[in-house]
Amino acid sequence: MNTEKESKLNRLLNRQPTGVVLTSSWLVTQGYSLDLQKQYRKSRWFDSIGTGALVRHNDQVDYLGGIYALQSQLGLSVHPAGKTALSMQGKAHYLELSTKKVQLFGGREDSLPLWFKKRDWGVHVDCQQTSFLPPDLGLLTLDHKSFKVNISAPARAVMECLYLAPKSQPLLEVFELMESLNNLRPATVQKLLESCTSVKVKRLFLYLADKAGHEWFNYIDLNKIDLGSGKRSIVSEGVYVSKYQITVPKELEAAV
Where is the Transcriptional regulator AbiEi antitoxin N-terminal domain (predicted)? Predict the structure, then answer.
């Protein structure tokens, strides 16, 4: 490998964090042609983990290293969400932290590349593709190893849990999560609720926050939130809550 190519390789190794995936398409935009990438693989500087994706040779890359590439190189809004995001922030300490399932949310137009979907990350990865919330609202940046990824902040994470409820997320569990969120910023919650397109999520979120008795709930302006019209039956054979026009599980309404 000549001096110029060595210099480019060193620049790449020095500027990119360890523990992440590097996508071929992004590398091309940075001046690393497909032929050059092939030479790097042949020289064992990098290993392929599927079509269009490389990692440093013998590097330990977890699913967050893949998320880093999706967000920073491919411009996708896919992010750790729901209970996964809450656990990463220590907000779900009584839940199983060593869970083998990771919950991601992404926009309706986000298409996960095959290398991400086929890769064995050591955990089961579930990705919901929906645009019920704006892609850049209610996120925070989390440090992981030597890089950063965007994940759902608590208020958005709870709404994502409610999006999955009750089919794949017990509502009573979401209430327990809500109970611990006593320091949410009203302005942040207000903006999320006004931007949310799911009437089910909005009604359930307000019901749970009201039930939890959080101080911040008193500062939410319900007049600015479109809660739709008519009754919504979240579960069959539940209890009807007239204030929010929803039918919820009996055990949830009975919880204190």
Answer: 6-97
Mean pLDDT over residues 102-127, rounded? 96
Helix 154-164 and helix 186-195, axial crossing angle in degrees, nearest 10: 40
Quote the pLDDT of residue 96.
Answer: 55
CA distances from 242 to 103, 178, 248 (A): 32, 21, 11
Joined together, the tokens standing for residue 120 give: 């064995």
Flag whether pLDDT at 200 surpasses 90.
Answer: yes
Q: Show Cβ contacts of residue 60 under 8 Å, excluding neighbours closer than 6 positions.
A: 19
Q: CB-based burial of residue 199 (10 Å sphere; 0-12 exposed, 13-18 middle, 19+ buried)?
A: middle
Provide the strand spans (E) within the chain.
22-23, 46-48, 53-56, 79-80, 101-106, 124-129, 139-144, 147-152, 232-233, 239-241, 246-248
Print burial letters for 108-145: b (CB count within 10 Å at least 16), e (below 16): eebebbebbeebeeeeebebbeeebbbbeebbbebebb
What is the number of alpha carbons within 13 Å of residue 74 lying toward its C-beta?
Answer: 25
pLDDT in tens, 203-226: 999 999 999 999 999 999 999 999
